[in-house]
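Record type: ASSEMBLY
Status: queued
Input:
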Amino acid sequence: MRLLTEVIQKISSNSSEHDASVSQSISDQLTNILQLMMEGADDINAAMISSVDGICWAEVLPDDFDRHRFSAMSSALLALSDSLAAEGHKGQTNNVLIQGEAGNIFVMHAGNNLLLTVFTKGESHMGLSLAHAKQATENIACLVI
Amino acid sequence: MDKIIFTGPVGAGKTTAIGAISETPPVGTDVQCTDQYRQLKEKTTVAMDYSYITLEDGTRIHLYGTPGQERFSFMWNILTQGGIGLVLLINRDHSDPIAQMEFYLDAFKDFINETGVVIGITRSGMDNNTSIDDFQQKLLQRQQIFPVFEVDARSTDDVKLLIHALLAVLQV
Amino acid sequence: MSKITHTLTIQASQQPIINVYKIYQRNYLKKLFVMSMEIKIAVTTLSEEDSKIISSALQMLADAGKKFTTSLRGIIDAHLLVIDADTEQGDHALQSSTAGQVKLLLATSPASGKNIVAVKKPIEIQSLKLLLEKLFDKMHDQLVRTTMMQVQTEHKVEIQQSTSCKTMLQVLLAAKNNKTVLRICSTQFPDVFIDGTNNSMASTIPQTEVVGFVKQPLDNVVVDQLKSSEFAVHSNKMNIQSLHNTLWVAAIECSNGQLLPDNSLDIPIKLRAWPNFTRNSFKPEYLQLAAILAKQAITLSQLQQLSGVPLKEIINFYNAAHAVDLIDKVEKDTNEPAATKPAISAQKKGLLVKIALRLGLGK
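Status: finished
Output:
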């Protein structure tokens, strides 16, 4: 939580050049995790990391995707899923799967206060995509303990 | 579906107010707050609060609380569908509570025109410069006459009064 | 305004509010006296040439400091009529005038009668000016005497109206309306200070006892008028709040179904804003009344028919809203239709009633 707290403070406040380099570094590292994940799974065509309260931290998204809006929606979806799972005595949500006509969306926890949203092209490599996404969440959790 | 929507900015007391009158503890979607409100409160609602009251004939009236931040405005549209009225809570200790009231009245304008709204001003325990008259004056400028009450979101009686006023407005 | 510092001890046999109002009567008369100095003149049916002469003569009087004004309603409420008696229109104007109005007739042949002064044509500015000056002086004295008598009569009515409601509500309203500073002393409660200049009240009375304070009989209440500066001195270390909070409670508790003076059941009214019911005493039906009055302008009689709420409660609510400046009187035809939003369905109305019952909200 120490690193997370530091990152929050730096990103949220007006920062000096030195401070900006710290937050940029974290953001770069998170982006690297996303790119690594996407290199390993061809089916994944977009991804983002956001806070549980809907603020985007890193993203690899097409230009026409509104990262702010998607971050908020992902956080709302995962929070609601957690409530449903808890009320249904199923423990914490592992992931939320949206199966659309033109592809899928996964939303899952990444550490205590972040979440990962992954967009895939189709169904054929869903398992592989999910596995890479899971690995990414573990990398994120290690980075932001 | 018959539902009453509670909305307002972060920290106004929406979750608390629903809890004050509902039959069961509200289902919440509170998560760690990391934005500029984190010093105001530890947790924030990101999807909705939900609870209900049951009428004598078994009908359920659903109580929904919306998230406060504007980035969750898509939830406002979803939650107000089928609603019978709006309870707008404003935290008087905010730096510009009147601007906040105007923002939410504009954001929910269509829903308010179709149904009705009552405004509750919370956290009035401290001395500050914004009085109920100030809120009324702004409503007068906007040529709107809505119920505006000082309430304690923790008080069952106060929240019931808000609902009662909303029902009176809806019945006219 | 003269300062009043004597203490009034109000006994059961006296008329307490008369003493308070006599204080203001002297000053009210002074004000009316000044206003009554202006004589209203109506000049009608004159030829163009005669009109010019009259105007010149009047201008000379104005330059000499005489106060008069042209009647905006023609001959109806003028004190002095200037008429050409040789014309048919002038004859008609003369017939339409009242006995109390002074008529200055411009005529070729002599004319006389009560309050009639005739001037033979052709008229001349200087002599006309002198005549008008004498007329003004005489009329002015008469006018002042008439006005004084009228004011005293009005005040008697006002006093009679006010003494018909000997309550704390009236005391508080008097302070507010007359912008005075009062100390209210009673045996049962600590002293209360009212500043009517800015609607403030200072007291140490707990909120739970305000109802008792406003409902107490005035038999053993002493009301002092203070200087403005004394409020700040006396209210030091006291809880200062808006006078409106207590005015509201006083109106609800003391009205007893009697409408405040100068109000009517049959004038359309509307709420300017909702009362703050969480901080003011209220009954469930007041929410219904407020909802209706916030939406449309109607009379209290119509409100009673529409809501089914007893008239006494409506009047108590109205007095309270009026006392705290929440009422707008609307000069509008009451026969006009009310708001155009379609009525809610019976089913929905039933649902709303059930919700209210479920939450224990009365009715």
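Annotation: The beta strands of chain B are 3-7, 30-32, 43-45, 49-54, 60-65, 83-91, 117-122, 148-150.
Annotation: The first strand of chain B starts at residue 3 and ends at 7.
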